[in-house]
Design a protein that fits this description.
Elements: H1 5-19, H2 32-42, H3 47-60, H4 64-68, H5 72-79, H6 86-101, H7 110-114, H8 121-130, H9 141-150, H10 165-170, H11 177-193, H12 212-215, H13 236-248, E1 254-255, H14 256-260, H15 266-278, E2 283-285, E3 288-290
Antiparallel strand pairs: 1-3, 2-3
The chain binds a DNA duplex (11 and 11 nucleotides) through helix 2, helix 3, helix 6, helix 8 and helix 9.
DNA sequence: TAAACGTGGCC
DNA sequence: TGGCCAAGTTT
């Protein structure tokens, strides 16, 4: 028998209160700006790699206005090797928009958050909930997986579904604002440390007694096959990364010859560099290329 | 809608 | 060791 929605919340919140990891963004008094920065950094990136960059970032730019006052190049440099450097550009753009449109205050309204560059359905609600304590469903890869298993009895969540995922999480949310916030964080935490994609630790799971997947005998996933990641070695992505690392390493512009020496396949190099320029991660300056200055 | 987008951790 | 996965968003 699948769990009633009301069954989950007390198990999740009770477990979270004693098992939550001690993470920077959970410290008392952590600023909304810090939450926003952390959520940008956490997109597709592991917690352990984010923490050191986050601390540096907030030490250097304690408010959105501080970041907005710098050229985008500095944001991209400070991003370092976190990956997906367009996120650094987006975060800089969002900081500028917050400074200009919101008096430098990170908004709590989901629609205003969604209007900021680089903020989508997940990040907007994560900020509203974790920074401001508002009541919204927060849906990420962790909560989708925990719901698929514990509620629907399926091993994997299947592809994201904008129409279904938010209502599915909303149906589980406690009425109380503060309980809802803890529930959001708790369900994510269960997915991150217990109900993991591979080798879930079901014996330690607070939902084990109500889990529909467990009750059904852990049936194998039989839904749509997910598109698999392409090989990174030799990809355009790798070339882009190599070029960006070189651009980050210096404050002067680099000549076409200097950059071209980084990769043997000239045609692929051209494609990668053109892509970076199109994405505004690199700009043409006095006969060479550099990170973007406003 | 699906593909593109970095880098590293983990088994 | 190679493939899957990671607090997603954009086009």
């Amino acid at each position: 028998m699948p769990p009633e929605p009301s069954d989950l919340a007390p198990l999740v919140t009770g477990w979270f209160r004693t098992n939550a990891r001690d993470l920077p963004w959970r410290r008392p008094g952590f600023p909304a700006w810090g939450t926003l920065v952390s959520e940008f950094m956490l997109q597709q990136t592991q917690v352990s790699r984010v923490i050191p960059r986050l601390e540096e970032w907030l030490g250097r730019w304690p408010t959105p206005a501080d970041l907005a006052a710098e050229p985008p190049a500095e944001a991209v440099r400070a991003w370092g090797r976190l990956g997906y450097p367009r996120r650094a550009l987006w975060l800089h753009a969002a900081a500028t928009q917050i400074a200009e449109r919101h008096d430098g205050i990170v908004p709590s309204d989901v629609d205003q958050l969604l209007a900021l560059t680089g903020i989508g359905a997940y990040t907007a609600r994560a900020v509203a909930v974790f920074a401001y304590g508002d009541r919204h469903p927060v849906v990420d890869t962790n909560t989708r997986r925990v719901i698929a298993r514990s509620v629907r009895g399926q091993g994997e969540p299947g592809p994201p579904n904008a129409k279904a995922d938010l209502p599915a999480m909303a149906a589980l949310l406690p009425e109380s604002r503060s309980e809802a916030a803890v529930f959001n964080a708790g369900l994510m935490e269960i997915g991150a440390v217990v109900c993991t994609a591979r080798a879930p630790r079901c014996e330690e799971c607070p939902l084990r007694e109500v889990c529909a997947w467990r009750a059904a005998g852990y049936p194998a996933y039989d839904g749509p096959v997910k598109t698999k990641q392409k090989q990174f070695a030799g990809s355009d992505r790798q070339v882009r990364g190599i070029i960006m690392a070189e651009l980050r390493s210096t404050h002067r512009s680099l000549t076409d010859e200097e950059l071209r020496a980084l990769w043997p396949d000239g045609e692929q190099f051209d494609r990668a560099l053109a892509g970076l320029v199109a994405d505004r991660l690199a700009v043409r300056v006095d006969g060479g290329y550099a990170l973007p200055h406003d």
